[in-house]
Amino acid sequence: MGARQRQKLLKRRKSAAQAARARARTRKVAVTGTLVTAAAAAFAGVAPAQAGPVDVTPRQVGDLVAGTASSDPVLLTAVGDTTFFVAADADGDRELWKTDGTAAGSQRVADINPGGPSYPSNLTAVGGTLFFTADDGTHGREVWKSDGTEAGTTLVKDVWPGTGGGAQNYGALNKLGDELLFAAYRPGTGAELWKSDGTDAGTVLVKDINDGYNGGLGYFNRAAVVGDSLFFTAYQDATGYELWKSDGTEAGTTLVKDIWPGRDWGVYYTTMAAVGGTLFLTADDGTHGRELWTSDGTEAGTTLVKDAWAGPASGAGGYGWYGYGAGVAAGGAFYFTGRNEDTGTELWRSDGTEAGTALVVDANPGTDSSYPRELTVVGTSVYFSGQNRVSGRELWKADGASASMLSDLAPGSFDSYPYDLTEVGGRLWFSADRGLEGRELWTTDGTAANTSVAADIWSGIDGSNPSWITNANGELFFTAATEAAGRELWTAGVAPAATPTPTPTPTATPTAPVPLDTAVSGAVVKTKAPQRQGKKLRVVVRATASESITATGAGMITIAGRTKAITLRTTSATSTGSGDVASLSLRVGKKASKKVLRAVDRYRDASAKDKSKYRVKAKVTVLIADEAGNKVIRNVVVKLV
Questions:
Q1: Please, are residues 574 and 567 in contact by the beta-carbon 8 Å criterion?
Q2: What is the DSSP letter of 449?
Q3: What is the pLDDT of residue 279?
Q4: Cα separation of 34 and 411, whole Å?
Q5: Whole-angstrom Cα distance, residue 350 to residue 281?
Q6: Quick one: DSSP state of residue 612?
Q7: Which of 115, 131, 310, 450 reaches 20 to 30 Å from 251, CA-CA?
């Protein structure tokens, strides 16, 4: 085939693909009881159903780094009408930026470190002021504040004078009333509790919880405000890590209870949330394992709620039994991940009583676990990402004491892997990949009928991979990638549309399905199984007829205990007319490859009983198209052992 003919062929393919995507975008239909894409339904001669009503038009908020390079915005945080974020400039230096949702109103706030990146982190709003930590290259990492102007972006206090840096990068900043409570380090005291009103003089040590240089706040990532107090974990040599509270004064900063008496750590891997005036948390007393507790701020009022897994085994926590998951409050109850020997790790709910603490749903029936992640509240409902053997990892919804899968977005055992679940405008917004558009922005009003792709930002199987989906005072912001602009900031004005009154649809006489081209319908996707994952996986596509076809692929590698799967990317492979397609090579980055190799080694070293917990596999979606524009999607699981 000559170069000119090849160009014409590519143009025809591109045009056909664009037309198919336009037909398929944000629509699904049912064909003989199976959920399929609208494009596939069109091939079968079935009229597609309309998606649920949603009035939203995502748009890019300028190109902060011109051209295909990415500014890669992260840590989106709303303060009043301004949304702050951290992004890179053309030199790759990450600094503080702001936006009002327009290109003209998106700009760098200040070049905090003129000699390089200041890496702002822990962005926190207190009143109309943004607090954050940054390193200006002179004072080390310290607490800063900003009113959105260059002149108003200043160092709050050099807690550890010199270049050492007093702010703990792994310690969260917490709002309590009109003050900021945070962990800061000084030689002699170690990391301890500090507070700030935004001035140098008003930034002071609250209490030296653990005498000496070790400090009491080496770990300060779990905290919750209940009433006028901040509850958090702190360390003392005599008690280990336990539950503390503070009202911002030295006298009011006290140990609540030594839950696991002695130097053992009762409250370390924990989740905390306020339900009304009660604190819910997970803790280990050394007898019952890690379980659900409540506290009213007093020693007597800090009690075990229920021993969900009887005995020393842990019945509450996060992913597995390590307690990293975050619980949420909704409808006057606390939702969290619990586990026992009969159900594995699943979604639980508690009203604070033993009788009112129970499993919500065994989403992965039996002893296998669904590992609920990203619990997100919309109204009184709780959405989460859960997995099972039949549907893979999909979107679930809990209302009260019951829950169900909202929709199997990627039909069968393949994952749509929803993440970055966020409420905006009374709807849930999230990132997902059903295998047609690639990973794109989705939305739902809580019904399967009204769960749809909000926009196909990067057309094709690659997807724009939306992330940092954020509710900024009712406005939807997120980051997304395009071929032309790289990863940049996007927004969408959210205006929930009224649900139209459904009208009866007359029964239509089924039409004969349009046959697919045999080269596409008969295409076979094969993999070497098992594969040793290094930098890439290989997938082979073979056509049954001797004509040219093109295949592209994308996939995800899931590792037990990781909150997000590792994304695989590939370039297209085109046959020469012999019926064969060159191997698709799906690649991961160098760092991700090391993680996968470690996970594979962990699987190899596991006992026969535990191997199922550590199984590493990739789920690959392959899109195959022929010269006429016909296409088909094939899914394959690649085992990595």
A1: no
A2: T
A3: 96
A4: 8
A5: 11
A6: G
A7: 131
Query: Is the Cβ–Cβ distance between 536 and 575 less than 8 Å?
Result: no
Structure tokens at 420: 């970055």
Q: What is the per-residue pLDDT across 244-263, written as a single tens digit (0 to 9) for each?
A: 999 999 999 999 999 999 88
Q: Which amino acid does the sequence have at 268? A: Y
| Beta strand residue intervals within 136-239, DSSP E | 141-146, 154-157, 174-176, 179-186, 190-196, 204-207, 223-226, 229-236
The DSSP line for 49-66 is: PPPPP-B---EE---SS-
Nearest to 292 by CA among 300, 279, 71: 279
Tokens describing residue 358: 């129970």
CA distance 615 to 621: 19
Amino acid at 459: S
Secondary structure of residue 591 in the 3-state scheme: helix
- Which tokens in the block code for residue 532? 């040793």
Which residues, at least 6 apart from 77, have a Cβ–Cβ distance to it below 8 Å? 83, 84, 85, 123, 124, 125, 130, 470, 472
Tell me the C-alpha to C-alpha distance, in Å, between residue 489 and each of 55, 146, 291, 479: 20, 21, 41, 5
Give the DSSP H/E element, type plus range, for residue 595.
helix 590-605
Token couple for 171: 């310690």
Q: Please state, rounded to an integer, the average pLDDT across all residues of the chain.
A: 81
Could you write out the DSSP letters of every residue in 271-326? -EEEETTEEEEEEE-SSS-EEEEEESSSSTT-EEEE-SSSSSS--EESSTTS----
Question: Given a cut of 80, is residue 204 above it in pLDDT?
Answer: yes
Please enumerate in sequence order all residues whose Cβ is within 8 A of that of 502, keeping only pairs 6 or more positions apart, or say none: none
Q: How far is CA 235 from CA 183, 288, 351, in A?
A: 12, 21, 29
Find, among 195, 298, 208, 209, the residue nearest to 248 by Cα: 195
Tokens 């949603």 belong to residue: 54
Peptide bond preceding 365: is omega within 30 degrees of 0, i.e. cis? no
Place of tokens 């003209």: 104
What is the spatial distance between Cα 498 and Cα 142, in angstroms, rounded to a whole number? 48
Largest CA distance in the chain: 83
CA distance 10 to 229: 64
Mean pLDDT of 301-324: 78
- The answer to whether 602 touches 614, Cβ cutoff 8 Å, is yes
The Cα 434–Cα 564 span in angstroms is 16
What pLDDT does residue 509 have? Answer: 44
Round to whole Å and give the CA distance between 67 and 69.
Answer: 6
Tokens of 202: 């008003």
